[in-house]
Structure formats: C-alpha cells, structure tokens
Amino acid sequence: MSCTVESKDRAGIINPMYTCQPAGGQFASIGVKDCIPLVHGGQGCTMFVRLLFAQHFKENFAIASSSVHEDAAVFGGTKRIIEGVEVLARRYPELRVIPIITTCSTEVIGDDIEGTITACYKMLAKEFPERTIHLVPMHTPSFKGSQVSGYDEAVKSLIKTLAKKGPPTGKLNVFTGWVNPGDVDELKFYLDEMGVDATVLMDTSRFDSPMLPDKSLQTEGSTTVEDLQDTANAIGSISLNRYEGGGAADHLKREFDVPAIQSPTPYGIANTDELLRNISTLTGKPIPASLVWERGRALNALTDLAHMFFADKKVAIYGHPDLVIGLAQFCMEVEMKPVLLLFGDENGRYKRDPRVLELKKTVDFDMQIVCNADLWELERRIKDKEIELDLIMGHSKGRYIAIDAGIPMVRVGFPTFDRAGLQRHPTMGYRGAMHLGETIANTMFSHMEYTKNREWILNTW
Amino acid sequence: MPMVLLNCDQDIPERERHIYFKVPGEDTRDYLPVANAPTIPGTLSERGCSFCGAKLVIGGALKDTIQMIHGPLGCAYDTWHTKRYPSDNGHFQLKYTWSTDMKESNIVFGGEKRLEKAMHEAFNEMPDIKRMIVYTTCPTALIGDDVKAVVKKVTEARPDVDIFVVECPGFGGVSQSKGHHVLNIAWVSEKVGTVEPEITSPYTINFIGDYNIQGDTFVLERYCERLGIQVIAHFTGNSTYDDCRSMHRAQLNVVNCARSAGYIANELKRLYGIPRLDVDSWGFNYTAEAIRKVASFFGIEDKAEELIAEETAKWKPQLDWYKERLQGKKMAIWTGGPRLWHWTKAVEDDLGVEVVAMSSKFGHEEDFEKVIARGRHGTYYVDDPNELEFFEIMDKAKPDIIFTGPRVGDLVKKLHIPYVNGHGYHNGPYMGFEGFVNMARDMYNATHNPLFRLAAIDIRDAGAAQIEEAA
C-alpha cells in the first residue's frame, strides 16, 4: 500500500504522450487576439500543429512558418524571419502581435532571435510607421521539455515582453493552463458569479465558434494586447496549473509585486473549493450562494455514482501533469483507485510536487507514478498483466490501448479528436466534475452492456 | 488574364507566377505556373516538410515495420494519427510510432548512442517485428549523426533484422516532395533485389503509388486477383517491407501516383528493364481504362472485359443516380498535387461535375502540365496556395463543394461550403468502380446537407421562415 514515483528506463519512445515545445508556443499564441505566430523552422513544425489543433477543436487557426529550407539551415535563417514578419504585417492589417517561435533546427543553427527582432522593429518602424506590432521571442527548442513546458515558456514570454507598469486595474489575472473552451467558460462563470473582474489568460472561449449567416470567421483567441500589458497592474494572479502558466504568475510577482497564488488545479470538488477560496482571498469577494448550489448539485450527482459504481475501480490516467494529478484527486473523491499515473516528460519538479508528496503520504492502495512516460509504459503493463484496469482516462493518442485491451476509456485532455465535442464541455469546476463523473459512468455502462458483464444491474437503478 | 495577381498578393507580386487561370486558345506552352519553388515565409502556406513526405506518406504505410524517427519527440508525434491507411494485419502501422527522443545533451554530444539504444529497445519490446526504417530529422541531420554506422552495428548484433535508412531532414527541398524522392531512390538502390518473391502467376506487377487510403489497395488487389495477376508489391499500401524488397521480379510497374513514386518506377526500368505503365485508379472510366491497359500488356483482354462488364453492371446504376443529382455542381480540389489531374476529368466525365479551382502543395511543373491539359477553361490552377489566396479564389470560383484536408474543411464550414476529405476521404475507398461510387455518394451527401441551407438564415429577419420554406 504505497505510492511510488519512478521514471521510464528506456531511452527511446514508443508512442509519445506529448508533442514538442513549439506546439505549446503555438497553443498559447493562438489564444491572443490579432496575433499570428511565426514558427521559425521547417514547415512541418507548423503544418502538423495546425492539423493537431484542427483535429481537437474542429476549427482552423492561423499560424505562419518561416519555411526554413536547406539554404537557411546552412547559412542561417534570420532573413526569413524578417521577411516573414514583413509579409504578415503587409497582408494582415489588423495584426498586433507576432510571436517568433523557435524550433530544434533554428536553435541548433543558433539563429539570433533577439537580434533579429531588433532588426524587425527597425523594418516595421520604417515600413509601417503608423502601426504598433509586438514581436515576442519564444524559445522553444524541441529537444527540451515538451508541449507542456513550451506552453509555460510561451505564456511567460508573452507576459515578459508585454506586461508594463500602469495604474492599478483592480482586476485578477487567471492563468488557466492548457485547457478547453468549456473550462474557460466555466471559470468565467464563477468569476461572474463572484463579481470578480478578471483577465483570463489565455481566453480561448471563442475557439468554440459558430457558423453565422454572414459567413464571418470568429474563431480566435480573445486575450488582447492590453490585457497582457495590464497583467502587471492586477490585484493578484491565480494560476491553476503549476506547469502551464505558473511561470508567468511568478514573473509578475517578481517584477511587478503582483501577489500570486498557485491554486490546486480545479478538478473535483475539493480542488474547486480551494480555487474559489483563493479567488475570494485575493479579491475580498465572498463566495455566493449560487455557487453553493452549483457545488451541491455536483455532489448530489456524484453521490449517485460513487459507492455503487465507482468504488474500488482501478484507473490509469495519462496526459498533462496538472491534469493527471487533478484527475487522480478527483477519482479518489469518488472512491476510485487511480493505480497508475503517467506524465509524458521529465521535470525534476514532478517528484517534489506537493500534491505528489501528499499522495505518497496518504494513498491506502498501490499507486505507481511514472515520469517521462510514453504510452508504451501503459500498454506494456496491460499486456504483461502487471496491472488490471477498469478504466483508462487520457487523450485520443492512446485510443488503441483501450480498444485492443477491451478496457473502457474516457477521453480527457488534449487532443480528444476521436470523440465529438469534448472541447466545449468543462472538466474543471463543479460542473466539470459532474460531467466527467457522468461520462465515466455512462462509458462503464456501455461497456457492461457491450460485453454483457453484469449489465442486468442497470435493469433497475 | 492567364497568370493572375490576386488582390491579397499585391505585396508579394511574385505569387503571380504561381496562379494560372485557363482561357480558350492557350496551352501550357504559353503559361505554366511555377512550382516546386521555395515558399515565401509568413504567407500561411499549407506545405509540410520533406521528412513527412518520406515517413508519413510512403514509409509509414508499411504494415510490419518499426518507424524509428531519430530526433525530438515531435516529429514522431506529428506523423502519427494523421493518416487513414489501414492494413489487413490489425493496423500495426496506425498504432505505433517511435522516437529517439533527442534531448539537449544529445544535440551537444551527438545522438548515435541514444539511437542505438532506442533501436535495440524497439526490437526487444516487440520481438515479432524484424524490420525497421530509421529517419533522420532536422536536428540530427544538422549535428551530423552517422546513422548508417549505427545501423550497421545494430544489424551485426541482430542478424535476423533488416534496417533501412532515410536521410531526409524536414528542411530538405521545399515541400513533402523531396522526401518522396529521397525514399524512392534510396529504397530502390539499397533494398530492391534483396528478397526473392514466390512467383504464383505468369502475370506479375508492382502497383506503385497507392497507399491504401481507406482500403483502396484492397479494391485494386481484388481486381488483380480476378485477372489472375500477382501483385508482387504495392508501393506501399498494405505492404510488407519484404514485399517491397522483391519489386525487381515484376514484369510490369503500374503507377498511380506518379508524383510520390514515379521515381522508383523509372529506376526499376533503368536497373531491371521493367516497363512503366501510368494509370489513373480513381474514376469509373479511368478504372476501366487502367484495367484494359494492364490486361493488354499481358494479352488477357477477355478477362478484363469480363471484369469491367461485371463491375459496371453492379455499380453503374448507382453512379448514374448520383450523376443525375450532381450534374453541374462546382467543385474545388485543394490538396497535395496529383489528385488534381487524377480527379478533374474523372468527376467531369463520370459525374458531370465542373472543377473550378485547384491547388497543389507539392506538385511539380509536370503535374501542372497534366492538370491544365485535363482541366477546364475558367478554372484556377494554383501552386503552393496560402490562406488569403484561398478565400479570394473561393469567392471568385464559388464552388459547391471542396475536396481538401480537415483543417481547411473546418474553415470552409464557416463559409457554408461543405468539404469532403480529399486526403483521407470521408467514407472510402475511393479507388476503383465501387470507390468512385463512394466518392460520388460523399459528394452528394455533402452538397445536399440541409444544415448549410439553415446556416444561411438569419432568424432575426422577418422573412427568414419563408426563405427556409422556399429552400
């Protein structure tokens, strides 16, 4: 009865759980309004990430490439950044932000991004004297970290480049981490109910965008340049994900004395409680009765499920670290046993994460946490019968593990392209917990029926 | 206006050389779009990299092969879950991807040891798999890892495995196309001729340039079986690594995708004297023509006519039902390259559909020669299109349906234009007689989707209800 933390001992990867840093840079950037990132590298580094976002959101996002070809790889590619910035500025008159996202090739070549940005500003001042376009360097070499650290780095770069001291705004910065529009909407609902004026970073609500009679394109990030600039003048920052956006809140604290709270990631009831208390602490606003109602409704729904259907069910969870930890805590709230947690990259901080330390202290069953894991770590354990699972929770890249092993699976995280519409439903917050719990239950019920395994239980419920 | 400078391209006037609008009285001696040329940075081009041309398109379709990608994890992640090419052995090639997961210290000190370790691990974890392709990527090519030396070492330690190396980093060439070329030439130089196939028929072919998208290969294989023709290798749909090593024993190379795999057919001709026969395996008439061409090579025309008659009897009535309803629809093809010239005349002849705009990401000038020859007047032909050009051309050409990838498909939904997946298909296969009926069905369902009619209505308008009723 213990919780162990280890790392994958193979050097190579069979079925990666995450993609590389530049994808994180691109995900953060598309959350900014009037922004097209320029990815400095080969064209695949952009084309595939655009496809990945399209797979998950079923929407298109504008991302540009500097199209590094062989000559640039040999002689340096900084000219292609300047040309790319100019082409973007000329053809997109509304453009206000261009993040310059590096990749492995251009980091290996050693292109001087900061120097090139200075040259770009000179060009912009000459060619577009009436416009202000912000260039944001994002160093995201693919051979370091993963999409998770790339996202963190990108949010930090946006804040570092744009935040500037001004009159206090009375607003609260909320760093959501790499979450879905459904989660952002849920968080905004809480902030509204509490009467808190907040800047949501990044505001991806409109990634879930309509088909309109006028055929206009509304799929865009909603976080503005002004929002980013004013993060320095907020009454405080809350970051929901330690490894995705936490770095930006730390920066604002160091540079601008903006108080920062690292909140537990709000999956499940207790974590959401803690988030609301944190918001209340930073803003002085009380938690309203409406949220007590919301909370009670989620508890009511989960109580129907927990000890009848969920108790003692063994679960494996993989995905972004904050998500996996949060979901494990949620699982334990509803009496399930998360026996295997997989993080897809190596970060010395995972093993010291207070939530991981807490799990090590408290779990009363065998739990294994694997860092730097690939999806083969999960598949092999199942194939070798090292573990028996009742449920897998993770993103679509692991779908065949569940399909081939005949284990029910709930899609959660990024990407979830093999299920419809998950991006618009919350996983965070009370409603997220309720929705997730019911999705788990319904997935298990379908599996019971499909495999004719005690399906008669549901003959009366 | 033969070559077109679009409004959105006023600031990048060199784009005029890439966009052609065909008018009567001209041919490709007068005008031909520049193609396979460097991309302008910042244009939002849709091109991928040469690594993906090798791995994702060709090597990755092999159903029994470890795809070891020597680089950071992203190159492996990105070229996984992006293709719909099944196989008859449980889709091994869809389920797995491998990366050496290069980290900073490997970039500094070299990644050869890491590669060697990852290769052994991969074979150890899946002991039934004995074949592997190793791909270099941008950073491992830049630091100059000697991949072939590592492969030699691993092969010496494991006599029962065979390993192929593709040295094609993403920055090579200007698009996916370079990767096709590198893999083709390396494969025929190093692997073809190293396995002897069992010959079971007096008629043997290789089917080149078909990747079993949604089961295309299975359809073609059934036709070959009925003609008594043995397919030594499909390059590379539903194929094994060793099938493709024995391509030298075929009597005829039948080529569908000449862009991605014409190179290997030419080399097989040069090295082994195997003739090359180009066919179109999409389209009802084209399929019949392809079967006739192949059969006449072997002198089995009677069998071919029998097959064509049977298939026509079975599928033509359905095709005609769709043709009646698709006649006059306008279509855009916004895909990679070869499908432009495979499809434009097929949909026109078989379905009465007019292709009004076409773009190619990685086609060469010879591909434009083919498509412009086959395509209509009043149609746009675009090389390496970008997003703003797409909007402008859609606005001018006003297609009723677009064959393109899912990302552009998500975009055109907002413009109330239905799309059909022109890469991975909606519900294929699309090759062969039955395949073209599938394609017609998907076009019909897309263009007759009531949701697009509803999308055009603003419910605030007083007359909205009547408009809806009238529609």
Which features would summarize this protein structure in a list?
heterodimer, A: 461 residues, alpha/beta, 6-stranded parallel β-sheet, 4-stranded parallel β-sheet, 18 helices, 15 strands, globular, B: 471 residues, Rossmann fold, 6-stranded mixed β-sheet, 20 helices, 14 strands, 15% strand
Compute the separation of the termini of chain A in Å: 33 Å
Give the CATH architecture of one domain in chain B. Answer: 3-Layer(aba) Sandwich
Give the low-confidence spans of chain A: none
The beta-strand count of chain A equals 15
Percent range for β-strand residues of chain A: 5-15%
Determine the most extensive contact between two protein chains.
A-B, 80 and 79 residues
Number of helices of chain B: 20
**Mean pLDDT metric of chain B:** 96
Oligomer: heterodimer
Strand order of the largest sheet of chain B: 1-12-11-10-13-14
Rounded average pLDDT of chain A: 97
Trace the largest sheet of chain A across and list its strands: 1-13-12-11-14-15
Largest sheet of chain A: 6 strands, parallel
Q: Which residue ranges of chain B are poorly predicted, with pLDDT under 50 across at least 5 consecutive positions? A: none
Structural class determined from secondary elements of chain A: alpha/beta
Integer-rounded radius of gyration of chain A: 23 Å
Q: How much helix is in the residues of chain A?
A: 40-55%
Could you walk me through the main structural features you see in this protein, from its secondary elements to its overall organization?
- The complex is a heterodimer of chains A (461) and B (471).
- With 461 residues, chain A is an alpha/beta fold.
- Chain A has helices at 21-29, 44-57, 70-75, 78-91, 104-109, 113-127, 147-162, 181-193, 225-229, 246-256, 269-283, 289-310, 321-333, 348-352, 354-362, 375-383, 399-405, 429-450; strands at 3-7, 13-14, 38-40, 64-65, 97-102, 134-138, 172-175, 198-201, 236-239, 260-262, 314-319, 337-343, 367-371, 391-394, 409-411.
- Chain A is globular and about 75 Å long.
- Chain B is built from 20 helices and 14 strands.
- Among the domains of chain B are: 50-173, Rossmann fold (3-Layer(aba) Sandwich), CATH 3.40.50; 203-306, Rossmann fold, CATH 3.40.50.
- A 6-stranded mixed sheet of chain B has the order 1-12-11-10-13-14, with helices on both faces.
- In chain B, α5 (112-125) packs parallel to α7 (147-157), α8 (177-190) packs parallel to α11 (258-272) and α12 (284-298) runs antiparallel to α18.
- β2 of chain A pairs antiparallel with β3 of chain B, so a sheet runs across the interface.
